[in-house]
Design goal:
Oligomer: single chain
Structural class: alpha+beta
CATH architecture of the largest domain: 2-Layer Sandwich
Number of helices: 12
Strand content: 25-35%
Radius of gyration: 32 Å
Order of helices and strands: HHHHEHHEEEEHEEHEHEHEEEHEHE
CATH superfamily of the largest domain: THUMP superfamily
């Protein structure tokens, strides 16, 4: 304890006695007993009260400028800002912004006495968090808070950040001609021009927009962002159990959602175009989880294939030998994809002859295999291909995704 007394005396001399109990107590947590730093600081000062020439506090705290005295007013300002946002939340996180001078003084004293203080920011955040928990009956959440409250002590202003909410589900795209996400006009890049009828879009609607419209209405959110486990081409349907996705809603004011009712509203709004299934609330890490899974999936497709030359059922049997595919980035996407060779596996093939020039081609394969090019060969950039196996030029007339397994 003698060393602590010496360190306390040195702090009192450096600050000429002008240090509040909290700023003093932080240097000795957890060495000195007490329920909080206020108690520790008071305890240490009482130990030295008999010392001669011990300076007494006559001015604002050397470190914080008596910042802690005003915390009650800060709490009231924070609560007022939260109420004005009119936002629904169940948990929060508090942060603070301090002048560099406060942090420098805290560090300076710690270096002088050879002790590292508990951060003043940590104590402020803790005290504000405790106060808000009591007054709002909400819990502090460190990992995925609904709200982040930032108290800026340099301007005495409060900033409220409303964190996104995330809905995970699967979607089925029942018609062709709809992109997965909003596609900005190529000519005006989304600003609006004569070519896009001043919509800023290449297509009037997308899977994202159709789904998000009702979700934004229900959550009173500002905007949405769509995260899919891969994507199908505009002219391809997504059938079966649908494609996994996460819809991110930014700045939602409502978080308690009746998901069954919301699903019904979305499907009624998107009737005969898009259908959503299995909606559930998830944390933000599912956003990257769903996107990362897109190349780790197996997928099943059904294509209508047209062949230049006459074919028979027996001719199609050779397609069962499709296995390891070496696929160079297709010509049609080479402007937006890295030019490299990808190795993918065809796991299972089923065929059904429709007429002498057409057949149904069902293929189960690794995610990331371009099926249209698996059929056409893409000028030999995909090897082997349906074209190379049949010895006749083949092309995909239309394509459906039947299953996305993750």
């Amino acid at each position: 304890m003698e060393n602590i007394n010496d360190q306390t005396t040195e702090i009192m001399n450096i600050t000429n006695g002008n240090i509040c109990n909290r700023c003093l107590g932080r240097y000795f947590y957890p060495k000195v007993p007490g329920n909080n730093n206020e108690d520790r600081g008071a305890y240490l000062k009482n130990l030295l009260i008999e010392e001669e020439n011990l300076p007494k506090k006559s001015e604002a705290c050397y470190i914080c400028g008596d910042l802690f005295i005003g915390l009650e007013n800060n709490l009231e300002n924070i609560i007022q800002e939260i109420h004005e946002k009119n936002v629904e939340f169940s948990n929060f996180l508090v942060g603070c912004r301090l002048s560099p001078e406060i942090l420098e003084k805290e560090k300076f004293i710690g270096e002088k006495i050879g002790v590292e203080s508990e951060s003043i920011k940590k104590e402020i955040n803790r005290e504000l968090g405790k106060g808000l928990t009591l007054r709002l009956d909400k819990e502090v959440e460190f990992d995925n808070p609904n709200l982040v409250v930032m108290m800026d002590f340099t301007t005495d202003e409060v900033e409220i950040q409303i964190n996104p909410l995330f809905l995970e589900g699967r979607y089925r795209k029942l018609i062709r001609g709809i992109p997965q996400t909003r596609w900005p006009c190529r000519k005006c890049r989304g600003r609006g021009c004569e070519k896009c009828n001043y919509t800023g879009k290449m297509y009037p609607e997308s899977v994202e927009e159709l789904i998000a419209e009702k979700v934004l209405l229900a959550t009173k959110g500002r905007e949405s962002k769509f995260h899919g486990a891969g994507r199908e081409d505009i002219d391809v349907r997504m059938l079966g159990r649908g494609r996994p996705f996460v819809l991110e809603i930014k700045e939602p004011k409502v978080r308690e959602l009746e998901l069954d009712k919301l699903t019904e509203q979305i499907n009624q709004h998107c009737k005969d175009k898009v259908e959503v299934l299995n909606l559930k609330m998830v944390e933000k890490d599912r956003r990257s989880g769903v996107k990362a899974s897109s190349t780790e999936t197996s997928k099943t497709y059904c294509a209508l294939v047209e062949v230049d030359e006459t074919i028979s059922e027996e001719d199609l049997d050779i397609l069962n030998s499709l296995n390891v595919i070496k696929q160079r980035t297709p010509i049609r996407v080479s402007h937006r994809r890295a030019d490299k060779i990808r190795i993918r596996e065809v796991k299972e093939v089923e065929t059904k002859l429709i007429d002498s020039n057409h057949f149904e081609f069902i293929v189960n394969c690794d995610g990331g295999l371009y099926i249209k090019e698996l059929i056409s060969g893409d000028e030999d950039r995909t090897q082997p291909s349906v074209t190379s196996f049949l010895g006749s030029s083949a092309k995909c007339v239309h394509l459906d995704v039947l299953e996305v397994n993750i």
